[in-house]
Design brief:
The complex is a heterodimer of chains A (393) and B (94). By secondary structure, chain A is of the alpha/beta class. Chain A has a nine-stranded mixed beta sheet. In chain A, helix 1 packs parallel to helix 2 and helix 2 runs parallel beside helix 3. Chain B has a single domain, classed as Orthogonal Bundle (Arc Repressor Mutant, subunit A). Chain B is 38% helix and 27% strand. Chain B is globular, with a radius of gyration of 13 Å. The mean pLDDT of chain B is 94. Classes of the chains: A alpha/beta (393), B alpha+beta (94). At the A-B interface, loops of A face strand 2, strand 3, strand 4 and helix 3 of B.
Chain lengths: 393, 94
């Protein structure tokens, strides 16, 4: 019977099984690798209303969406979050809250539980207060620990997510210990990927190969000793792979993202791609966006591919990689993702990796060095001031 | 643990089981993931949403699918319960 039990995403290519609802770009944290657009403050005034989000949920459910990610920014900044969760529950969504836990207290978590949230994912920026609070740009560690304990008390399945980069990856053993103490069901040790904010901060963030190997070895050792108690996922930065990943499980096959102002996108960064108009739920139906819009059809399947992807025997596996990464690094959204060592532009990745090694050799790694005297660009935290600065460039 | 027809079974609280119209099948939902179930797995799990014995699951299936061979059906259910238990989908107790 096992052979007939399959993961749906392999088979149901035409259903947007996942709806990611970015409820607001507002966030009390300032993570320097944030997945929101550089110019995020510009959307604040145009955020979708409660009723507009409910309509999005209803339409997505009709298209077959069943997993709902409630994200941001920080979704807890929406005072109507409980109402939206209750609506999602009544529509039959499995809802996942992707949060920093800032904006929660015991009473609000209980209300969210009562409203029907299925799962909570709490992010940490480090394994202790110093590192976490430095990279979050906000005093938050102690509160995250408290809220993780509350979430488990309420019986939520809980994922803890640690975004890894050069300056916190050495803490990986302590991150796993913390996750175990907090009784997490899953731990994601996910290296930052380099788009948007993270790409602007790549000099300060990209780990060296040796750092990754060390971190992976510690993770594997932990897995051996703790078999079965807690699932651990380790995600390598694309830059250290030879082949790209099929971004979002393949462009417009599985994922549907709606941004705070109602733009409909196949991924969180698609607004970075040039020349493609973004559908918006205030103007067009979700169904039209998914099935008919030029944006969603631009990179569906393999017909759009140039060489070397077009004649590649692996093209169905990675689908040419990430379009946003291709555009950000080569200036051409149709190019082979330069992560692929068959890409004529692969030297961009090799150079970035070599630079990360050089920076590691300078031995300025680790939290606490004086960033003003460091020979690399200091970390640019995600905040309105830096958004303005970077948007001008 | 030894699993017999007298074992009590219930779907684990870590999963949600439901029918999906767009996919025309039952699914199990869990944090950020989903398993599609084939029709027989769906029929079995739909009878495990409240705590029950495996024997009761089998007899209920026999009532619903009178044409099925009863020995094969019982063996299929036991095989599935073992697999589903290995996947962590069930809470079992004797």
């Amino acid at each position: 019977m096992a052979d007939s039990i399959t993961i749906a995403s392999d088979q149901q290519q035409s259903i947007p099984l996942w709806l990611l609802a970015e409820l607001s770009y507002s966030c009390p944290l300032q993570c320097s690798y944030c997945s929101n657009p550089i110019n995020y403050p510009q959307t604040r005034a145009a955020e979708l209303s409660t009723e507009e989000w409910k309509a999005v949920f209803k339409d997505a459910r009709k298209l077959g969406a069943v997993q709902l990610g409630l994200s941001g920014g920080e979704p807890l900044v929406r005072p109507d979050l409980e109402e939206l969760i209750a609506e999602a529950r009544s529509l039959g969504f499995y809802s996942n809250l992707i949060t920093s836990a800032i904006g929660a207290d015991a009473a609000r978590l209980a209300a969210i539980h009562e409203a029907g949230l299925d799962h909570i994912q709490i992010s940490f920026q480090g394994s202790n207060q110093d590192v976490n609070d430095h990279f979050a740009g906000t005093k938050s560690f102690h509160h995250k620990v408290l809220m993780a304990n509350e979430a488990k008390k309420l019986g939520f399945p809980m994922v803890l997510n640690f975004v890894l980069h050069r300056q916190n990856i050495h803490q990986i053993g302590d991150m796993l210990k913390l996750a175990e103490e907090l009784k997490a069901d899953f731990v994601e040790l996910a290296n930052s990927q380099y788009y948007g904010w993270a790409l602007k901060n790549i000099d300060a963030l990209l780990p060296s190969r040796q750092q990754l190997l060390d971190a992976e070895a510690i993770t594997n050792d932990f897995r051996k000793r703790h078999r079965g108690n807690m699932d651990v996922i380790f995600v390598v930065p694309d830059y250290y792979e030879n082949r790209p990943k099929a971004c979002c499980n393949g462009w417009a096959t599985t994922f549907l993202t709606v941004t705070p102002n109602g733009n409909v996108q196949p991924c969180q960064s698609a607004q970075e791609l040039p020349g493609l108009e973004l559908p918006n739920v205030r103007e067009q139906s979700l169904e039209w966006a998914w099935r008919e819009s030029p944006l969603f059809n631009a990179f569906r399947g393999t017909d759009w591919m140039p060489e070397p992807c077009r004649s590649c025997p692996e093209k169905e596996q990675d689908l040419g990689g990430c379009r946003c990464q291709a555009y950000l690094l080569t200036g051409d959204a149709f190019a082979t993702d330069p992560v692929c060592d068959l890409s004529p532009k692969h030297s961009i990745i090799e150079n970035a990796v070599a630079k990360a090694q050089n920076i590691a050799d300078l031995n300025i790694d680790g939290f606490g060095y004086d960033i003003d005297s460091a020979p690399v660009q200091p970390l640019l935290f995600r905040n309105p001031k830096n958004a303005k600065l970077l948007s001008k460039k | 643990m030894a699993i017999s027809e007298n074992t009590w079974v219930v779907l684990s609280g870590q999963f949600r089981f439901q029918w999906e119209e767009a996919q025309q099948c039952y699914v199990l939902l869990y944090p950020e993931g989903m398993v599609q179930l084939n029709p027989s797995a769906g029929e079995i799990l739909s009878r495990c949403q409240q705590q029950t014995t495996i024997a009761d699951v089998i007899s209920d299936l026999q009532n619903s699918f009178a044409e099925a061979d009863s020995k094969t059906l019982a063996a299929d259910v036991m095989e599935f319960i073992h697999e589903a238990n290995d996947q962590g989908w069930l809470d079992l107790k004797n």
